Amino acid sequence: VQLQASGGGLVQTGGSLRLSCAASGIIFRLNAIGWYRQAPGKQRELVARIFSGGVTNYADSVKGRFTISRDNAKSTVYLQMNSLKPEDTAVYYCNTNYDGMPYWGKGTQVTVSS
Description:
- The chain has 114 residues and is mainly β.
- Helix content is 0%, strand content 55%.
- The chain has no helices and eleven strands.
- The strands form two sheets. Strands 2, 4, 5, 6, 9, 10 and 11 form a seven-stranded mixed β-sheet that branches. Strands 1-3-8-7 form a four-stranded antiparallel β-sheet, with no helix packed on it.
- The protein is globular, with a radius of gyration of 13 Å.
- The N and C termini lie far apart (37 Å).
């Protein structure tokens, strides 16, 4: 199982970024995929998750600003991040659980300047 996250970068407050997570080694359409983030000195936290049927959930801190979506044909999950704030600065990771094991992609850095 491999998860490849991309799309991070440096953006000003109020800007937008779109993260991508490409998965391989799983039956993608059957798996939930989550985006997590970890800021310096803080615990990793769930940002958003999308289930196989398309149901989504979000952390309260990003509701209304972030949108998670999936393209099963491309085995890819996206995280559209709008109205970014400095407190969104973190390393973002995608995650799935497969055959009872958690899998993490390498993180992608998102930095929001004030």
